[in-house]
Amino acid sequence: MITQAHIQNFRCLLDVDLSFEPMTILVGPNASGKSSILDAFSQVLDASNGWRNKVNPHVNVSRDSGPHSPRDQLGLQVQPLHLDVRLLRNENQLQAAARLDQHGSNLSNVFATLSRVQRGEVAERLAELVPMYRDVDTRPSSAGRHRLVFQDRWDSSVWHEPHNVSDGTMLLLAFLLLQYQQPPPELITIEEPERALHPYLVGELIGRLRRLATGKLGPRAIQVVLATHSAELLEFAEPREVRFISRRQSDGATQIEIAPTETQDWANAVKEYQGSLGGLWLSGSLGGVPGG
Amino acid sequence: MASLRVVVYAEGPGDAGGEVTELPPPNLPLGEEHLGAVHVLVRRCLSEQSPLPEDAVTFMCPLRGRGGRKQKGSDLLLVSNLRQLLTYPRAESRPHLAIVFVDGDGHENRRKTLISALRDIALPHVVAVPVQEFEAWLIKDHSAVARTLKPPPDQPEAVESMAPRKAKSLLDEWISAAMGNPHPRGVRMTLAGISDLSMLNRLPAFKCFREDLKAALKIVSG
Question: I need a labelling partner for B76 at 20 to 30 A (CA). Which of A55, A115, B147, B198 fits?
């Protein structure tokens, strides 16, 4: 597991130190640097992304097995996910796919590559979370292509086409597949995982990602880093998991703050906000919020 | 102490600032363009009662209310909201002093009730409750009004005995009737800046505010 990262000269990340939990949640305004942190892991060798295009980026990462740098010495297996609800509905040219691509455009292939038992588990869990559907399957389309279809809960003869299925359902299906990917990545980064989900399902998703990150789901622990603007998501976060991201007023460089969870002031604040981390964040007292 | 970080919670944007430009993120310093009449008066009172020059007082952007909303006057009357607005989880970055302005609106016990509800809040704070509304303080010194608005309006009845909202509406009327179409914010800030504090001190609520401020400054300076 990555425990620390020191990132320099990457976009707005002039010089930041960042600690990680099994699941880490980056929260902050638009353009505060959340996506840059996620991208630093997968694009750090791209010199064109240097700090204001003048110097080369550098990332030093510490793992629980000791410090490593740079990425190729780490052998870090990062899966960046920025799922696109339009692409999740894509028909796929039939081929084996053990992992979702960044935008989820190969979702049909990843689902079809699972074993029959795994597909059954995924369909059963999806039907629990979105009880309008009973099952998920793939159906052939034209010329070696196939697509996902969703069985209606009340009329088993009806299979819904992807374009008739909600965005949230498509996203949940993609998230349910993460634990089955082979080989599993070491780290999954996800942009705005809460998009299109009912607040109850956000809680389910965060709980599931935390279990994935702590090894309670799937064959081994997969570290997870999320980026979000969502106060609803924070209601399901542990304070130690959250990093508050903002830009320094003096030079625009990204700065990162953590919740001072060991202090009496923190305990008092949590009490005043009745345990609502989302409410406390929105007050602006923790950083990671815009002006306006 | 070389500087004093102060957060002011007041009822209207004209009093609290924020009507001219967008505000910075909460708990960052406000610029002069963000300030309102309340800030001007508070700064005068602070510098009068402490060795700090006026420019050593930095006003911080207020925290946001529920759902990230900018607080409104009525938010300050709900004790749970007000307690949240005075709660800063990072001791090292919280303001030195908070000042809450709430209109009395004819409620005699409002100040006492709020003080009681906030007594265990760690942040040193002052609750100021003008007898009816803040505008009563702005129009108390009629010579300041006469120097600010032309032609000078007639001297009103004693502000202490005005009905709720009378001082507010009177000031609005005077500004509307003044020559040169003056901007209300500018007029209010001018009045806050030039009113004779010793004259305002004849108002029991203002006198009480200054005494509370003095006591709070003692706590802040340790």
Answer: B198
Task: Confirm or reject contact between A246 and chain B (CB < 8 A).
Answer: yes
Helix or strand (DSSP H, E) at A136:
strand A133-140
Which residues in chain B have Cβ-Cβ distances shorter than 8 Å to A263?
89, 91
pLDDT by residue (tens digit) across A3-29? 998 999 889 999 999 999 999 999 999
- pLDDT of res. A50: 41
Retrieve residue A3's tokens. Answer: 């425990």
A52: left (phi over 0), alpha (psi -120 to 50) or beta: left
pLDDT range class, residue A71, cuts 50, 70, 90:
very low
Residue B121 has pLDDT above 80, yes or no: yes
pLDDT digits (tens, 9 = 90+) for A45-56: 433 344 444 445
- Strand-pairing partners, residue A92, are A146
Q: How far B159 CA sits from the closest chain A CA (Å)?
A: 36
B63:A285 CB<8 A: yes
Pairing of strands A254-258, B4-9: unpaired
B84 vs A273: CB contact, 8 Å cut-off? yes
Tokens of residue B7, six digits: 């957060």
Q: What is the 3-state secondary structure (H, E, C) of chain B?
A: CCCEEEEEECCCHHHHCCCCCCCCCCCCECCHHHCCHHHHHHHHHHHHHCCCCHHHEEEECCCCCHHHCCCCHHHHHCHHHHHHHCCCCCHHHCCCEEEEECCCCCCCCHHHHHHHHCCCCCCCEEEECCCCCCHHHHCCCHHHHHHHCCCCCCCCCCHHHCCCCHHHHHHHHHHHHCCCCCCHHHHHHHHHHHCCHHHHCCCHHHHHHHHHHHHHHHHHCC
